[in-house]
């Protein structure tokens, strides 16, 4: 069983099981009917063929019922898609950039990682980008999947509800090393997450200051004039 670690699990799994149940029902109905008809109307039992005439009632029934079922499935999918595409206003934003064949996660304070860290029970909005070809951001444990398309920003969101480490996959074939294009999402309690982010930010600042000495002297010269 796949882990169940976000707010989308119940909704998505319910939709999935309803669709599977409908498919299994019709698979059995069609298969059993076929076997019964093959036996009942075999040539041995019916040596003389008989013409049959159409039935309007039957035709309406087998048009209307499948149409209603297909629209019902579409409705469930549409509602789920809309929920996934509309993050709550105060969500924490992470920019996700896909490229052949790795992931980059960038936080509002400039911190960048190749593993996604998120706080527990907080709404997280992921803004999905691609630098080259089509990819797809997929976290099975969250039931979240959305494409990363070049020149476009797609949006998805989730609220992680279980501490742990879960897999991030690329779910859109994107070339030779597509199968190696995976990462992880680590869900931490909010305090731990804040500590991690602050620590990372500090390291980033130190690193930038170290390599940015030329830039600094330039600014000093300008301000002196
Ligand atoms: Cu990919």
Can you summarize this structure?
By secondary structure, this protein is of the alpha+beta class.
Summary keywords:
225 residues; alpha+beta; Immunoglobulin-like; five-stranded mixed beta sheet; 4 helices; 10 strands; binds copper (II) ion
Task: Walk me through the structure.
The chain is 43% helix and 26% strand. It is an alpha+beta fold. The strands form 2 sheets. Strands 3-2-1-5-8 form a 5-stranded mixed beta sheet, with no helix packed on it. It has a 5-stranded mixed beta sheet with strand order 4-10-9-6-7, with helices on one face. Helix 1 runs antiparallel to helix 2. The site of copper (II) ion has 7 residues, from loops.
The domain tally reads 1
Give helix and strand order, one letter per element, not per position.
HHEEEEEEEEEEHH
Radius of gyration: 27 Å
Using the coordinates above, name the CATH class: Mainly Beta
Find the CATH topology: Immunoglobulin-like
Which helices and strands occur, and which strands form pairs?
Layout: H1 9-40, H2 56-85, E1 92-99, E2 102-107, E3 112-113, E4 116-119, E5 123-130, E6 135-139, E7 144-148, E8 154-159, E9 164-170, E10 182-188, H3 190-211, H4 213-224
Parallel strand pairs: 1-5, 4-10
Antiparallel strand pairs: 1-2, 2-3, 5-8, 6-7, 6-9, 9-10
Helix pairs in contact: 1-2
